[in-house]
Every structure is written in structure tokens, then in C-alpha cells.
Amino acid sequence: MKYDFTTIMDRHNKDALAVDGLGLNPGFTPDRPKEGFDIIPMWVADMNFPTVPTITEAIIERAKHPAFGYFRPTKEYYKSIIDWHKNRNGVTDLKAEYIGYENGVLGGVVSAANVLCSKGDNILVNAPTYIGFTNALAKKNGYHLIASKLIKDEKNIWRMDYEDMERKIVENHIHTAIICSPYNPAGRVWEREELEKIMAIYEKHNVYIISDEIWSDLILEGHKHIPTQQVNAYAKSHTIAFYAPSKTFNLAGLVGSYHIVYDTWLRERLLRESATSNYNDMNVLSMHALIGAYKKEGYEWLDELRQVLTANVQYAYQHIQDHYEGIDVSMPEGTYMLFLDCQEYLEKHHMSLEELEKKGWDVGVAWQDGKMFGDPYGIRMNLALPLSRIQEAFKRLDTYVFSD
Fold first, then answer.
1. Which of 186, 168, 241 has the alpha carbon at shortest distance from 209?
2. Cα 302 to Cα 300: distance, rounded to the nearest angstrom
3. CA distance 180 to 105
4. Amino acid 27: pLDDT
5. Which of 305, 244, 284 is nearest to 52 (CA)?
6. Which stretch of DSSP H or E encloses residue 101?
């Protein structure tokens, strides 16, 4: 490969929550390991790979100029986004006027909810539910999240329960729904037929859509992302969609996302809501980071990354299938997260989820508690590491955690 996905980066003392944050926030972060074990960060959703060099080159080049005053997003910024969506997802009708900056996807989701709902309204989500939606919308902003559980089909693939979703929409007087596409933490890449079915339900009941598509670039081999707004005319005019290079290129620490809204009425209301804090403004280095990410080299880097992530996911999935009886897992189609259902294993071994998680944390396998996603038996594992580190993690799990 042209780019480096094998070097083990030392992230200690480099402001990395994934490593330096362990043990600092009980209930959210994993515990620090016992003496003799180094940390294998497999929890918070960032990557342990060096990003594409054109990003750091773009930041350094801009930083050479010794002034960082007020600025406006450049035409190159918008063109980079338009070209990216055309080349990656086949979107041919995107214009600069449809694109707006957001400090972060979750902040944008809250702004969108404030446009479409009143405080205390019910919003439809699926479960297991991304913790960011729960924290940002329910805990901090007073919305009620009504969850429709994903169900596994005969092939152990997570599916939406259309009847349950429609029933909850009617019973709870819901007019706004969140789509997470691809789905975190279950790793589903929704097929066009699936999106068409839920869009028919939403149109029938006049439901607006907030679509979190921050994972849309991280599609595993053999699958394809369908932008929610490209499903049909209703979706295009009733969806507020959010994207970012931050998940794709590991830029969360730089801050910088964007929304796409086709409908003029929706877009104008969202822009007004987003501006109310007077703090939803782009960082000049973040802008240049996006431009650097969406260069030709960024396309090449992402294609190689997808190969690496696909191999990592296949390795982890097969290892669990072959060695950990009672741990149920579905093969992800997108993201780099693996979601484990540990119920059968825990019941068989008369063990709590906390006890199982702690056994992993003690030996440096910093996997993530799944209860915060609404699953009392779940564990989420980040697989965006060099394969050698994943292999080492499973070696420790074999020896110290699933050894009985």
C-alpha cells in the first residue's frame, strides 16, 4: 500500500482521549490497565492511523502565514465538498448554497431538532442508540427519544422494524426522526429498498428527517452508501443531513462539520438556529484541513483505509465466531465498530457485563461499555487500529478473559 496503516502510533501525551483519558471519567471511559499491560484503545470512535499527509501539509502551509484574522470560506472549500459527494456517492445536484458549516454533527443535530420540534417533543430513533443522540437531545435539551429496536433477521443482519417504527410514530405523535446512516453502533449500511420503505412511512405521517451521515465514507468492501436525500423527492425536501471529514480522516480534534439542506425554508431556519449562539463559526485551519482531505490523495488514502478496515473487521468477526461461544456478533457493513451481544455468555458464566468489561480493561483491551447505547449486554469495539494491535487484543482476550 502507498499509505501507512501498520505503524503503531504512540499517542500518549498527544491530547488523545482514547489513551490519556482512560480512568478519568468512570462510567464513560474504560479503566486503566493493570501494571504490565499497555493500552490498546478500542473504545472512543477515532482511529489509530496517521491521516493522509495532504491534510498536515495544507495546515502547515496555511500556518506559515503569520496572520489568523477574520475570514470567509473559500470557493475551493465548497468545490471540494461538491466534488467529493459527486465522486464518492454520485450526487450530481449539490450546490454551494445547500452547504452550511457546523462545529460538529451533534451540535447540528440539536439545531435541526430545535427547528423541527418543540422542547419536550418525541423524536424517533433506532436502538441500540448512539450515545451522542441520547446525551445531546435527551439529557441536555429536553427531547424524548422514542426507540424502535433493530431486529436481526435469519442471516443475523440488523434490520429496521417498519411496523414498530410506524406504530411508535402514530402512538407518540412523532414528526421528526433520526436516521444514522451508516448505523452506529450496529454497523449497518442501509440499502436503497430499506430507505425507501421508511421514507414511505415518513411521508405518510409527515415526518421530517435528521440524517447523521458522518460515517458515510467508511463503507466496507462490497457495500455502498445511499445518501438519504437521494432516496426520493420527499427525502430531498424533508431531510437535514450532516457530514464531516472528521470521522473519515481522524480530524475530530480540529472541529469542523457541515450540513446539506436542499429545501430553502428548512435551510434558512437551520441557519438562523445555528447562528443563535454566535459561536458556530469555522476555524481557518479546519477549512484547510478539509480541503487537504478532499484532494486526490485523500481519495486514494480512503480507498486503502477501507481495505484495511474490511480486513480488520473480518478478522475480529471470525475470531469471535470461532472462539467465543455465547458472544453474538453481526458482520458490520460500514464504520469500524463491532457491537457484541454478550447476554448468552454472561448468563452461562453467571457474570455481569461490568465484570466482563473489567477483565478486558485490566489487560489493556479498552473496549467500550454498551449500556450507554441502551443495550444491557453490549460491548462496542473500535477496530481502527493496525491489525497487529487487534491480534494482540484478541490474544489477551483468549488468555485472560475468555479462557474458561
1. 241
2. 5
3. 11
4. 87
5. 305
6. strand 99-102
Residue 260 near residue 243, CB atoms below 8 Å: yes
221-255 per-position pLDDT tens digit: 999 999 999 999 999 999 999 999 999 999 999 99
Give the C-alpha separation, 138 to 28, whole Å: 17
Q: Where are the beta strands (DSSP E) in 219-364?
A: 239-243, 257-260, 328-329, 337-341
Whether the bond into 185 is cis, omega within 30 of 0? yes
d(CA 240, CA 60) in angstroms, rounded, equals 33
- CA-to-CA distance for 304 and 323, rounded, in angstroms? 29
CB 337 within 8 A of CB 378: no
For residue 276, the SS3 value is coil
CA distance 249 to 6: 16
Dist. CA 135–CA 302, nearest whole Å: 30
**pLDDT < 70 regions, the chain:** none
- Candidates 152, 107, 109; CA nearest to 128 is 152
What's the predicted TM-score (pTM) here? Answer: 0.97
Strands 365-369 and 337-341 turn out to be unpaired
Calculate the alpha carbon distances from 303 to 153, 227, 296 in Å.
30, 19, 11
Tell me, rounded to whole angstroms, the distance of Cα 19 from its chain centroid.
19
Secondary structure class of 259 (helix, strand, coil): strand
| Nine cell digits for residue 285 | 485551519
Spell out the alpha helix ranges (H) of 152-232.
162-171, 192-204
CB-based contacts of 18, cutoff 8 Å, min separation 6? 11, 41, 43, 44, 46, 48, 366, 382
Between CA 21 and CA 13 the distance in angstroms is 10
pLDDT for position 167: 98
Write out the H or E segment, with its range, that includes residue 209: strand 208-212
**Does the N-terminal peptide bond of residue 128 adopt cis geometry, omega within 30 degrees of 0?**
yes
Q: Do 403 and 356 contact (CB within 8 A), yes or no?
A: no
